[in-house]
Amino acid sequence: MERSRRKVRVGVVVSDARDKTVTVAVPTSFKHPRYDKVVRRSSKFHAHDEFESRNGDTVRIMETKPLSKQKRWRVVEVVERAR
């Protein structure tokens, strides 16, 4: 029997002020059921970061065991560095 798949998200680093922790904003969009307009929202996740990402970097994060009170994700790779 296989372990359950871990969730993976791609988002943009919006805060790198803390040591080895980044805040990642993950955008989502969906069509409104009644008005058929595209609604854009974003969720923020606190992720453990060994790659020393900076603000504006696009990163891939993966779900992991609780690392602290707020951190439940870790940075797997830096997809694109900010210019």
Name of the top-level CATH class:
Mainly Beta
CATH architecture level-2 label: Beta Barrel
Can you tell me the number of structural domains? 1
Poorly predicted parts = none
Order of helices and strands: EEEEE
Approximate helicity band: under 10%
Helical region count? 0
Name the average pLDDT.
96
Structural class: mainly beta
Query: Main sheet, how many strands, which sense, barrel?
Result: 5 strands, mixed, barrel
The N- to C-terminal Cα distance equals 44 Å
Shape: globular
Rg computed from alpha carbons, rounded to a whole number of angstroms: 14 Å
* CATH topology call: OB fold (Dihydrolipoamide Acetyltransferase, E2P)
The named CATH superfamily: Nucleic acid-binding proteins
Tell me the strand order in the biggest sheet: 1-2-3-5-4
What proportion of the residues form beta strands (DSSP E)? over 45%
SS elements, strand count: 5
Give a short overview.
By secondary structure, the chain is an all-beta fold. It is 0% helix and 53% strand.
Which short descriptors sum up this protein?
83 residues; mainly beta; OB fold (Dihydrolipoamide Acetyltransferase, E2P); 5-stranded mixed barrel; globular
Q: Would you spell out the secondary-structure blueprint of this structure?
A:
Layout: E1 8-15, E2 21-31, E3 38-48, E4 58-63, E5 73-80
